[in-house]
Amino acid sequence: MDSLASCFVQHGAPSQSFKLYSLQRRPSTSLLRRSVPIVRCAAAHASTAAKATSVDVVNGSGNGGGGGFDFETYLSAKAKAVHDALDVALRDLRCPASLSASMRYSVLAGGKRLRPALAIAACELAGGPAAAATPVACAVEMIHTASLIHDDMPCMDDDALRRGRPSNHVAFGEPTALLAGDALLALAFEHVARGSAAAGVPADRALRAVMELGSAAGVGGVAAGQVADMEAEGDPSVGLAALEYIHEHKTARLVEAAAVSGAIVGGAGDAEAERVRRYAHFLGLLVQVVDDVLDVTGTSEQLGKTAGKDAAAGKATYPRLLGLEGAHAYAGELVAKAEAELDGFDAAGAAPLRHLARFMAYRQH
């Protein structure tokens, strides 16, 4: 444990201040010795699109973390814009009504829309307009939703609850759910191609975004991670290296692709895109660490899905391998590493990404 973290994040109720404790740093890490601002998160609901969180920076420093940025409004606005765009993209599909209904059921079920917001924020950081990244943002959400539909099926995690209501296969049957996930995956790439052209994104940038998303969805990401995750179930010998492989692919890679694709269509240069990639890599791992912790500490009502499923399935998780305190500590390290990658960018432009990292760390569902 002493090799893990630079700070310890103590989770509590959404309205409390979070304390961060200094721990010994891993000797091999390149993380700069820096303080992570203490933040307070208050849960709030966006209208129809997503649940947002208000972030009040209590102890900001000169790293762009100061108080002038209204993250709640930003995230809520992006979530609603993406939700509306997804609604339009899923209208009048030329397919059986049951397939269309199944696709819309899961995509429009809500959620925080963090991956789409990340794509848009990265595009804006690179100097591009939000409209340029909206097709990418929608595609990321389609890919993510497809993975959730498949993940919930009896042949995978066999979960009957998703986002507080019956999983897709429970509502529509397994064959339709399987095909809805497949259709969403295909539609994602069609949508990037058509939408990017309509938004005036140069073809070479759109192609690079498609390549990035394709890698994240397939053998370079979600598919590989899911297989490794299933093969590791019930294996007590699974260690940290195997767990990192699973979550770098199953979770972090799509988060990374969302950010990098957004930056690319926004006009980022190679060096900028790689820094965004590193930021998002740490962010993606953070998502999984917090998910693992909440699976232990949260309730099904809070999470909108069945709590305690990982332990019941004998899965390797960060709390199981590190303990809850160790998992919290690792989350703190990942927040600091992600924020460190933003230090060279314009502070105002990086503010959404900085606050997004803190939101990921301190969320309660």
UniProtKB/TrEMBL annotation:
* Single GO BP term: isoprenoid biosynthetic process
Pathways involved: Isoprenoid biosynthesis
- Gene Ontology MF annotations: metal ion binding; prenyltransferase activity
Keyword terms of this UniProt record: Isoprene biosynthesis, Magnesium, Metal-binding, Transferase
Cofactors demanded by this protein? Mg(2+)
Cellular component GO terms, alphabetically?
A: cytoplasm
Sorted alphabetically, which InterPro entries does this protein's record hold?
Isoprenoid_synthase_dom_sf, Polyprenyl_synt, Polyprenyl_synt_CS, Prenyl_diphosphate_synthase
Which SUPFAM superfamilies does the record cross-reference, listed alphabetically?
Terpenoid synthases
Asked whether the UniProt record includes Transferase among its keywords, one would answer yes
Which family is it part of? Belongs to the FPP/GGPP synthase family.
Protein name stated in the entry: Geranylgeranyl pyrophosphate synthase
